[in-house]
Specification:
The complex is a heterodimer of chains A (350) and B (293).
Chain A lengths: L3 E10 L2 E11 L4 E5 L6 H9 L6 E6 L2 E2 L10 E4 L11 H11 L4 H14 L15 H13 L5 E5 L7 H18 L2 E5 L3 H7 L2 E6 L2 E6 L1 H6 L4 H6 L6 E4 L1 E3 L2 E3 L6 E2 L9 E4 L4 E3 L7 E10 L3 E7 L7 E6 L9 E6 L5 E3 L7
Parallel strand pairs in A: 3-8, 3-9, 6-7, 7-8
Antiparallel strand pairs in A: 1-2, 1-4, 4-5, 9-10, 11-15, 12-13, 13-14, 15-21, 16-20, 17-18, 17-20, 18-19
Chain B lengths: L1 H33 L17 H8 L1 H33 L5 H9 L6 H12 L5 H10 L14 H26 L3 H10 L3 H12 L1 H17 L2 H6 L11 H11 L3 H33 L1
Helix pairs in contact in B: 1-13, 2-13, 3-7, 3-10, 3-12, 4-7, 5-7, 7-10, 10-13, 12-13
The complex binds adenosine-5'-triphosphate (ATP) and magnesium ion.
Magnesium ion binds next to helix 1 of chain A.
């Protein structure tokens, strides 16, 4: 178990800098999730922590010890790949025991440890099979088994569940959470899946273009994003952004009656409202009104995409599962002003 | 429509089957047939001698010698190019300087016919002014000069070296392709789990190259079974039958001594050996298929 510290980490491939100075302190036993758009450097950062890529500059410390130039094997980390990276010519047992076999551990000890690990991951009946005789979820469990057998100090996961179907993903997500509780190990986890990030993380790190935008607990990022990028990235479906204009003491929002500028929001250029903070009301108390363009029914909830005259984009509105609304219905909406976010011209929250 | 299709199916299949029949099946069964006769190759009058030819094989000292040489030849012609090809592929796959150029250079000999390769190596081995003896003389003096192809103890191995020189490029190219096909993340797992270079090779790379090895060995077996021309060019089976193989022996008995019936019997034995090897090979192939299929 270990604390992981990154300080001013940078990485260039040739002329292109892809990691542009990261500072991050991951506590011992913490579960940290990296999220961010494709190509923003999540995998690269993970691979630098693992030692598979060299940092161009900056330092990585594990429990205070500088490991920036240490070989991957000597860092005491384990990595689980998106592709599982199982050896096709080895049985499940040999795949799990690979690390211990390399260390020339005693055979009896290896098979005892393999049996223990297989037990935790419900792989016991599969030990003599080859990877190609396993399902995706089983393969992923083998990959995790190979990672945990050496009692690593840090686990790195690069989108480990993205090749699984939805139901299996939920199941494996729970298993990983259970594993984290059981082992108490430090885990760094890359994902594109909002739900995975929100449910697994102690803290989420939001990446954008080789930099960290914000670090915080899932609810913290959801409630108090520091900037427009994080506000738009965290939460699904994404926050609605409305352009606003301050004229003296009055605030102009297209499609809406002007209102007095709220205190402290004089520099606002944009208003952010999450789909769940728009409420359907009767016409009188409405802030905005428009016409439903499209309805998406997900069972427990429904999303309406609403066209408001004057607004450049449709508004996304979250509704209960049972709703009488349909496409072409007209709709009146009230904004929950206590939850609204205001952004200035450079995208910072006011 | 159905009728029409069947007609064309028969016509289109007939041509290749006809060629196969004329050039493969007919000679094959003719060999079986003549192996039971005392035909001399041109005399229309010959008689059936039953299994006499095969009985003769059992007591033919030269046949035994040729069989041993064939075994040596085949094992060496499989092992040498395969290991050398693998070694070169591993070397050139890591980014050594000029890897591209070397790849082409090592592949080049495979483009030459065995006759040309044989001639090149005859010159290299030439006792008085050949490249090999010239170098040896330069380095050690006259002491270790040798008539490589003319001495019974070195003739076969000299040809094997020439053969390996040609075949190594093929093995190398196939292994290079195999190495490229190994997923990078498997090698990264080795790095993270702390495999030494030898462990990585022995436990991961080599097993993952098994499909390539199957192909390389198959080609080596087929080529070495056919590898008659280079021996014919370089030694003709001599001196004193020291580099005779079964194919060479069959040729000598049939076309030099005009014992066509006896030669046919040898070819039948050779055929059975080849079938046995190919059978073994297919069994191995199925095993590889089970894991990698
Ligand atoms: N070996 C490499 N050589 C050159 N450029 C690379 C290399 N590896 C990654 N990059 C570049 O670095 C940037 C970050 O890549 P990285 O794989 O870390 O992104 P990511 O955040 O993991 O994206 P994704 O979510 O799609 O997996 C990308 O622009 C990518 O093109
Ligand atoms: Mg990635």
């Amino acid at each position: 178990m270990a604390r992981v510290q990154l300080s001013d980490l940078r990485k260039s491939f040739g002329q292109v800098q892809v990691i542009k100075g990261l500072d991050l302190d991951i506590a011992d036993g913490e579960f940290v999730v990296f999220v961010g758009p494709s190509g923003c450097g999540k995998s690269t950062t993970l691979r630098i922590i693992a030692g598979l890529e060299d940092a161009t500059s900056g330092a990585i410390r594990l429990d205070g010890r500088d490991v920036t130039r240490t070989r991957p094997a000597d860092r005491g980390i384990a990595m689980v790949f998106q592709s599982y990276a199982l050896f096709p010519h080895m049985t499940v047992a040999d795949n799990i025991g690979f690390g211990l076999q390399l260390q020339k551990q005693d055979r009896a000890l290896i098979s005892r440890r393999v049996a223990e690990v297989a037990e935790t991951l419900h792989l016991t009946p599969l030990l003599t099979r080859y990877p190609r005789e396993l399902s995706g979820g089983q393969r992923q469990r083998v990959a995790i088994g190979r990672a945990i057998i050496r009692n690593p100090r840090v686990f790195l996961f690069d989108e480990p569940l993205s090749n699984l179907d939805a139901a299996l993903r939920v199941q494996m997500r729970l298993e990983i959470a259970r594993l984290h509780q059981g082992l108490g190990a430090t885990m760094v986890y890359v994902t594109h899946d909002q739900v995975e990030a929100m449910t697994l993380a102690d803290r989420i790190v939001v990446f954008n273009d080789g930099r960290i935008e914000q670090v915080g607990s899932p609810m913290d990022l959801y409630e108090h994003p520091e900037n427009r990028f994080v506000a738009g990235f965290i939460g699904a479906p994404a926050m609605n952004f409305l352009p606003v204009r301050v004229l003296g003491t009055q605030l102009e929002v297209p499609g809406m009656a002007t209102i007095p500028v709220p205190p402290g929001k004089e520099a606002a250029t944009e208003l952010g409202i999450r789909p769940e903070h728009l409420h359907v009301v009767d016409g009188l108390s409405a802030d905005l009104s428009g016409e439903v363009e499209l309805i998406e029914r997900l069972g427990a909830e429904t999303y309406a995409y609403v066209r408001v005259p004057g607004l450049p984009l449709d508004l996304t509105v979250r509704l209960p599962g049972e709703t009488a609304l349909r496409a072409r219905s007209s709709i009146a909406l009230k904004i929950d002003w206590t939850r609204a976010k205001w952004f200035n011209a450079s995208g910072r929250v006011l | 429509m159905e009728q029409h299709n069947r007609f064309w199916r028969v016509v289109l299949l007939a041509a290749p089957l006809g060629v196969f029949g004329i050039f493969v099946l007919w000679p094959l069964f003719s060999s079986f047939y003549y192996s039971l006769t005392d035909w001399n190759g041109f005399d229309p009058n010959y008689s059936f001698v039953g299994f006499d030819n095969f009985a003769k094989i059992a007591s033919d000292r030269l046949f035994l010698q040729a069989a041993i040489n064939t075994a040596i030849w085949m094992v060496a012609a499989i092992v040498l190019p395969t290991t050398l090809g693998l070694a070169l592929a591993l070397l050139l796959d890591s980014r050594v300087l000029g890897a591209r150029v070397f790849k082409s250079i090592f592949y080049l000999p495979i483009c030459l016919s065995a006759v040309i390769v044989g001639q090149i190596w005859i010159w290299i081995y030439q006792a008085d002014w050949g490249l090999l003896n010239t170098i040896i003389t330069e380095v050690t003096g006259e002491k270790y000069k040798y008539a490589w192809l003319a001495k019974p103890d070195t003739a076969l191995w000299s040809v094997i070296v020439a053969w390996s020189w040609q075949q190594t490029g093929l093995a190398m190219v196939i292994y290079l392709a195999g190495l490229t096909a190994i997923p990078g993340d498997l090698l990264e797992v080795c790095e993270i789990e702390g495999a030494t270079p030898w462990q990585r090779f022995r436990r991961v790379v080599l097993p993952l190259l098994a499909p390539s090895t199957v192909v390389v060995v198959a080609l080596s077996v087929i080529n070495s079974l056919k590898g008659f021309d280079i021996l014919y060019i370089m030694t003709g089976g001599g001196p004193f039958n020291s580099s005779d193989t079964l194919a060479m022996h069959m040729y000598n008995e049939s076309f030099k001594k005009y014992l066509m019936g006896y030669g046919a019997a040898i070819s039948v034995v050779l055929f059975l050996i080849a079938m046995a090897i190919i059978g073994l090979y297919f069994r191995q192939l199925r095993k590889v298929d089970r894991i990698y299929g």
